[in-house]
Specification:
Layout: E1 2-5, H1 7-10, E2 13-17, E3 26-31, E4 34-39, E5 45-51, E6 63-65, H2 69-81, E7 96-106, E8 114-121, E9 124-130, E10 140-144, E11 159-161, E12 164-166, E13 169-170, H3 202-205
Antiparallel strand pairs: 1-2, 1-6, 2-5, 3-4, 4-5, 7-8, 7-10, 8-9, 10-13, 11-12
Length: 208
């Protein structure tokens, strides 16, 4: 669940993205201050728009927001009051974390992509397809997991590159808009002492 708010550019609308709709045709069902955005083919909810959102709780900031359990509960009350049966589930897990490439093989249908198994927690490994020229087994870097919003506004969802599933993205300094980021390809290289699964902290993880 990716929550964004930008009153200046969009208005007093809380936008909640649940899934990547791809090229699917979308439709909208609105009741009161709540609009459900769904795929016409599967009738699957992909997003919610909550209008006059500041009437429910104080909102501050611009871009991605992280809601408290109490705020999510308040939104669920509104969904229920308007007759929607679905329930929002709060996700407070960090979306930018230290990861380590534990296995890497060449993509069978590309001359520059690699299929990497990346540890992102003590007991969690995800597959990420990457083309970074400095990717290698053992490297620790910063990983954007599904549910992350990049500084340029793009959203990270599970996907596939040339037929191989990918569940996140290993980030370059430039993609994270870090100061003095080199304008060349290549993911962040962290010290071996960094702990896998640690939330990304620019002050700690970047000395550009």
């Amino acid at each position: 669940m990716i929550v964004t708010y930008n009153k200046e550019q969009v208005g007093d609308v809380l936008m909640i993205t649940l899934k990547n709709s791809g090229d699917a045709k979308l439709a909208v069902e609105r009741k009161g201050k709540v609009a459900r955005v769904y795929r016409e083919d599967k009738q699957e909810t992909v997003a919610w728009n909550i209008f006059e959102a500041s009437a429910f709780f104080a909102l501050d900031g611009k871009g991605q927001l992280f809601l408290s359990d109490e705020q999510v509960a308040r939104l669920n009350q509104e969904l229920q009051a308007e007759g929607f049966a679905e329930v929002l589930v709060n996700d407070k897990e960090p979306k930018f974390v230290v990861g380590q490439i534990v296995e890497m093989v060449a993509h069978p249908d590309s001359d520059h992509l690699n299929i990497c198994q990346v540890a992102v927690g003590p007991d969690k490994t995800v597959q990420i397809v990457a083309g970074a020229p400095n990717a290698r087994e053992g490297l620790k870097t910063i990983v954007a997991l599904p549910g992350a919003m990049m500084p340029d506004g793009s959203l990270i969802f599970p996907g596939a590159l040339r037929g191989e599933k990918s569940f996140g993205m290993m980030c370059s300094p430039r993609e994270l808009h870090l100061p003095n980021a080199p304008q060349k390809r290549g993911i962040i290289e962290l010290q071996d002492t960094e702990e896998v699964g640690t939330p990304f902290d620019p002050a700690r993880h970047w000395q550009g």
